[in-house]
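Schema walk-through. Below, the input block comes first and the output block second. Nothing else is stored per chain. Lengths vary across the set, and this one has 543 residues.
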Amino acid sequence: MRAAAYREHDPEQMNRDRKLRNLILVLGDQLDERSAAFDGFDPRADAVWMVEVAHESEKVWVSKPRIAIFLAAMRHFRGAMLERGWRVFYRALAVKSAEWNGLPGKGTPGETFAAQLAWTIAQTHPEKLIIVEPGEWSVREEITAVARDAGVPLEIRTDRHFLCTAAEFAAHAKGRKQLRMEYFYREMRVKTGVLMDGDKPAGGEWNFDHDNRESFGKDGPGLLPAPRRFPPDATTREVLAMVSARFAKHPGELEKFDWPVTAADARAALDDFIAHRLPDFGRWEDAMWSGEPWLYHSRLSAALNLKLLDPREVLAAAERAWREKRAPIASVEGFIRQILGWREYVRGIYWRFMPGYVGRNALGADQPLPPFYWTGETEMNCLRHALRQTLDHGYAHHIQRLMVTGLFSLLLGVRPREIHEWYLAVYVDAVEWVELPNTLGMSQYADGGVMASKPYIATGKYIQRMSNYCAGCGFDPAERTGPRACPFTTLYWDFLLQHEPSLAKNPRIVMQVRNLKRLTAEEKEAIQEQAAQLRKACAAKVP
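--- output ---
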């Protein structure tokens, strides 16, 4: 069927077709069959445009798993549109070049996204360009500039995948001295009716965190319900082979790639999570364990951010599990808060504060990103596990990101933009609207408190409590100086010393700051000296 579809839309037929009315631009994270971009689509007059551009994977050093999931999902989405009989202009990367399907014309376009779009406009002469809101500020600006230069009208449609528009979030934020997710989340519960009993929260409370977030203890997680796997089909295998060859020097591995890359597979992944892991999700959502990347997590964030899954489906399935007594309220509410609360909240923050948000550095962090973030080669066991898992799968759950990789870069003082670009490059679910606020705001506190009410800092004892990582490590989280001192613990106390004046004004962290009074002048000097040595060692191999 796919081969026949290509023959139906070959360049010769396109040259015979009448003038193109609308060119529908579909980005790699907009694979939504019900997208507003397709409202009013007429296959006799309109066409879809999608492009794979190597430059998008090279402007930051994007990992192989992230490249692969985007391209595999895009190619499957193209196939679904061709099955409908739609015209699709699609540029696919090959090992050493790229080729267009369904697009007539002569000449060779440039290798950037903008050059490809400008070239397509020159070949097809559309009356209008249509797109739903891009998930990245710079992409929106780029498309707007190309359309303006080409003299073609551009219609940017509201992305109804989300439950809160940028305008609605701006209205929520207006007049508030501080933005806090909890209040936004409650408004969204009321607005949508999700997990509500009339005008009251289901279960009698808005938030069940007090019943969640346990550690596994010394006995570990026991037998875990493994998430459903999605072995690569022929289309995905073709992508994996191309990525392995063309992007051979990029970080990450593809041997374990088994992500859902179609809407049908994403719905199957949702069903699997609801049935087998949601009931215990809340209790163990913050726990970590060596060699167990998935635990009770959903593995749905990539499918959601590619828009293979509608968040309404996800929320309805989770709530239904509680109402049918298949999952406890604490797990269901904790999961729903991630989707309806946090996910919508970070998008609102992104569009309210961009483009300046990306340059924020409230703590004046100036250290380079340690090179072992790209290799996982470090003596710190917790970081080695989290980094190797990230490179192997393109995945780490929220506590591994916030309280291991993110915590270390925060305490070390890594430049926020560098750690932001790393997160954007290595995780399969990373799209800038969701990744940037989570990194700069929640993880690095670089926005000075817009996203979070305090810096999320801790000694190595937090990691020891929530995982078994410390059991196999040569460092002791109880020691802050000396040869066996845990770098997290050393850097934690140094962080408090560096930022004591500003942190002492924050009521949510002032108790931690007051602990500095227990240290002698000699102890403070030893901490600062050891922290300086750590920073020097971490930067030593940076080119």
